[in-house]
Design goal:
Layout lengths: L2 E3 L2 E3 L3 E2 L10 H13 L9 H21 L6 E4 L2 H22 L11 E5 L4 H12 L4 E5 L9 H5 L6 E5 L13 H17 L6 E5 L11 H4 L3 E5 L9 E5 L28 H40 L4 E3 L11 E6 L6 H6 L4 E2 L14 H5 L4 H4 L2 E5 L6 H23 L1
Helix pairs in contact: 1-8, 2-8, 3-4, 8-12
Length: about 425
C-alpha cells in the first residue's frame, strides 16, 4: 500500500502494519467531514442541529449492531477498546458485590470475585486485571495457551470455581493471528451457568476483545455466545474510537460506568457524544457489512502470496512462521522469523528502506522478543527474530514484491556486515 508520509510521497513505501492501525477509509473520512459540517449540534438538544446529530448517532449504532449481529440498544460508544475493556473488568467488582447483597440469606465469606483469562491477551485486558489483583480486589487464573498458540477450552473450564464471575478471551491474537475458540467456550459457559443457577451461584459473564477480528472475519455475538464484545474502530479503517456490546444492557447483562456525569449513553458512558467520530465508526461498520467477504478473500490471497514469496526468497528452511498451520487464523496476519543470529527482527526492519512494519504490538518495546510469542511457546531465539507483517484491503502483490526485495536487501546487508 503506497502512502503519503510526512507530507511527501514515498513512492516505494509499503505499509504492512494493519494490525497496529489502519488508514481511515475515504468514505469514512467523508462521513466525518459531513458530520463536522452538518451535525455540530448537541445530541441532547431538542432543536434541529441537535436532532440531526442524535439521528446520526442512532444510524451509526444500527450499522455497528448489524456488523456484529447484536441489537442497537446494546451498543455503548467509548473512546476506544481500552475503555471498553476496562468497563467490563472493573465492573466485575461491583457485579460481585451486588450479587452478594442479593443472596444475603446465604452464608457469605470473605472470598473475592474470580476472573479467568489467557496469557496472550492484549495489555488493555491483562493490565486492568493485574491491577485489580494487585489491590486485592479479585482472584485471577491465567490460562496458558497451547504450543499451537491457541487456548484449550477445557483448560479454561477446569479453572472455574464457585466465585468465578468473568471469563475474558480475545477473539483473535494481534501478533500470531490465531483465532481463539471463543464460540466453543461460550457454549460451555452457557451450560455451566444453567447448573450454577440451580445451585444459587453467581452467573459467569463472558467477554471477548474482538479488536483484531472485526473487519477481517465474520463476528456474530449470537454465535459467539458472549455477554460483552469490544469493538475498536481504527482496526477496521474507522476513527480511533470504539464501543462495547453488552447483551441486554442493564437487564440480562450488567454494565457499570467508569465515568460519572450526564445521562448520555443512558448514563453508562456520560459526556457529550463525539458525533463526527461516532458517525465515522458507523460508516466503517457499514463498509464491513457490505464488503466483508471481499475484504477477507483479498487479504488472504495477499497474505498467502507473501508467505510463498518469503519461502522462495530465503529458502523454506530459513523461514519459520510463528503460527501453527492446524489452527484458524486471521486472513491478513503473518508472523515470521528469519533464521540467523544476525537477523533480529527489529534490526532487520531498521535496515529496510520501504517496509513499515513491527515485530509485534505497536504499544510494546520493539527491541525485545515478543512476550506474546514467548507465551505461545515460541523459543527465545525464534521470537527475537520475529517480524509481524499484516496486510490490508488495498495491499497488492506489487507491494509484496517491493517488501520482499527490501527484506532481501536488509538481510544481505546484515549478513555481509557480520561476515566481514
Amino acid at each position: 500500500m503506497r502512502l503519503m508520509v510526512y507530507g511527501w510521497y514515498r513512492d516505494m513505501a509499503v505499509y504492512l502494519d494493519h494490525n497496529a492501525t489502519t488508514p481511515v477509509a475515504e468514505p469514512v473520512v467523508q462521513k466525518i467531514i459531513d458530520s463536522l459540517n452538518d451535525e455540530w449540534g448537541n445530541p441532547s438538544s431538542g432543536y434541529l442541529p441537535g436532532t440531526k446529530s442524535k439521528n446520526s448517532i442512532a444510524e451509526a449504532r444500527q450499522h455497528i449492531a448489524l456488523m456484529i449481529g447484536g441489537k442497537p440498544e446494546d451498543i455503548i460508544f467509548t473512546s476506544g477498546g481500552t475503555e471498553a475493556n476496562n468497563m467490563v473488568i472493573f465492573g466485575i467488582v461491583s457485579y460481585y458485590e451486588d450479587w452478594l447483597k442479593s443472596v444475603s440469606f446465604l452464608k457469605v465469606t470473605n472470598e473475592k470475585p474470580h476472573v479467568i483469562t489467557t496469557n496472550v491477551e492484549h495489555d488493555a485486558v491483562i493490565l486492568p486485571i493485574r491491577h485489580l489483583e494487585k489491590t486485592g480486589a479479585i482472584d485471577v487464573s491465567i490460562i496458558h495457551v497451547s504450543t499451537r498458540g491457541c487456548v484449550v477450552p477445557q483448560d479454561i473450564l477446569s479453572k472455574i470455581s464457585h466465585t468465578t464471575c468473568l471469563i475474558t478471551v480475545m477473539l483473535a491474537n494481534n501478533e500470531t493471528g490465531v483465532i481463539m475458540p471463543v464460540e466453543e467456550i461460550g457454549r460451555c459457559i452457557k451450560e455451566v451457568n444453567k447448573q450454577r443457577k440451580a445451585e444459587n451461584l453467581i452467573r459467569i459473564l463472558y467477554h471477548t476483545d474482538a479488536a483484531q477480528g472485526v473487519g477481517k472475519i465474520q463476528v456474530d455475538v449470537q454465535e459467539l455466545n458472549v455477554d460483552y464484545l469490544t469493538v475498536v474502530g481504527h482496526k477496521f479503517y474507522g476513527p480511533r474510537i470504539g464501543c462495547l456490546y453488552a447483551r441486554g444492557i442493564g437487564q440480562e447483562t450488567p454494565v457499570y460506568p467508569l465515568l460519572h456525569g450526564g445521562g448520555q449513553e443512558r448514563g453508562y458512558r456520560p459526556g457529550t457524544e463525539n458525533t463526527p467520530m461516532i458517525a465515522g465508526l458507523g460508516e466503517a461498520a457499514r463498509l464491513v457489512c457490505e464488503n466483508l467477504s471481499t475484504y477477507s478473500r483479498h487479504m488472504k490471497i495477499i497474505r498467502d502470496y507473501l508467505e510463498e514469496e518469503l519461502k522462495e526468497a530465503f529458502g523454506e528452511g530459513n523461514v519459520i512462521f510463528n503460527c501453527s498451520k492446524d489452527v484458524r487464523r486471521l486472513p491478513n496476519t503473518c508472523s515470521v522469523s528469519l533464521i540467523g543470529v544476525e537477523l533480529v527482527g527489529h534490526v532487520v526492519l531498521s535496515k529496510c528502506a520501504h517496509i513499515m512494519a513491527s515485530i509485534g504490538a505497536a504499544c510494546h518495546a520493539q527491541n525485545k522478543p515478543s512476550g506474546i510469542l514467548l507465551a505461545s511457546g515460541i523459543p527465545h531465539h525464534q521470537a527475537i527474530n520475529s517480524i509481524r507483517l499484516s496486510v490490508g484491503r488495498e495491499t497488492t502483490k506489487g507491494d509484496i514484491d517491493i517488501a520482499i526485495e527490501d527484506l532481501k536487501q536488509s538481510v544481505t546487508t546484515l549478513l555481509y556486515k557480520n561476515s566481514s
